Amino acid sequence: MRVLVVEDEQLLADAVATGLRREAMAVDVVYDGGAALERIGVNDYDVVVLDRDLPVTHGDEVCRKLVDMGLPTRVLMLTAAGDVSDRVEGLELGADDYLPKPFAFSELTARVRALGRRTSVPLPPVLERAGIRLDPNRREVFRGGEEVHLAPKEFAVLEVLMRSEGSVVSAEQLLEKAWDENTDPFTNVVRVTVMTLRRKLGEPPVIVTVPGSGYRI
């Protein structure tokens, strides 16, 4: 899952991004609404965590433009104003969910994951395919009843492949969904991660390489 965090309090923005990355999400961070619109015009995001009171371009305007663009991206709006009228106003702007500050990080993570499941064909919270069981909320993977311990990027790649439901996923798509914009697009990090993931998942191999196209399960 790829997430854009838009928050002008830089310490909070960076803390949220770090926490989401530990949950195996690819996260980009910007600190004003203008920069957010630039990123949204370049990258595909599953979820935007959007502070409402932003400099340059207000969060309300960012939300409106996202809705007008017709993107499948979901918006989780953050604000220090947490009464009912503020929540209603935020949702009427087109936000998909609303979380007042201060918030518990576990709740933020749960809401981001719930929104991420709504960006494509609805899938169950726990994914199962080819004898593999992946629980994104618990960050657990089992094969044949045995737990498989994965690093965050390995987990992220496996989740993208599982969510594709047998479709081929290119290396470029994996890079887009599992890594942030600071990753060198010419690196071999995808190939190396898939190799490590195959080894950890054991025999028989479940990740198939489709020459010239990508990978599938």
Features of the shown structure:
217 residues; alpha/beta; five-stranded parallel beta sheet; four-stranded antiparallel beta sheet; 8 helices; 20% strand; elongated; phosphoprotein
Summarize the structure.
With 217 residues, the chain is α/β, with parallel strands linked by helices. The chain is 41% helix and 20% strand.
Shape: elongated
The total of helices stands at 8
In what order do the strands lie side by side in the largest sheet?
Answer: 2-1-3-4-5
- Averaged pLDDT: 90
User: Unreliable runs, pLDDT <50, ≥5 residues?
Assistant: none
- Give the ordered list of helices and strands: EHEHEHEHEHEEEEHHHEE
Q: In total, how many beta strands?
A: 11
DNA-binding region: 124-217
Domain OmpR/PhoB-type: 124-217
Organism: Streptomyces humicola
InterPro entries: CheY-like_superfamily, OmpR/PhoB-type_DNA-bd, Sig_transdc_resp-reg_receiver, WalR-like, WH-like_DNA-bd_sf
Q: Explain this structure to me?
A:
This protein has helices at residues 10-22, 33-42, 59-69, 84-92, 105-116, 152-163, 171-178, 189-201, and strands at residues 2-6, 26-30, 47-51, 74-79, 97-100, 127-129, 132-135, 140-143, 146-147, 208-210, 214-216. By secondary structure, it is of the alpha/beta class. Strands 2-1-3-4-5 form a five-stranded parallel beta sheet, sandwiched between helices. The protein has a four-stranded antiparallel beta sheet with strand order 6-7-8-9, covered by helices on one side. Helix 2 packs parallel to helix 3 and helix 6 packs across helix 8 (189-201). The two termini are 18 Å apart. The relative contact order is 0.12. The model has no long low-confidence stretch (mean pLDDT 90).
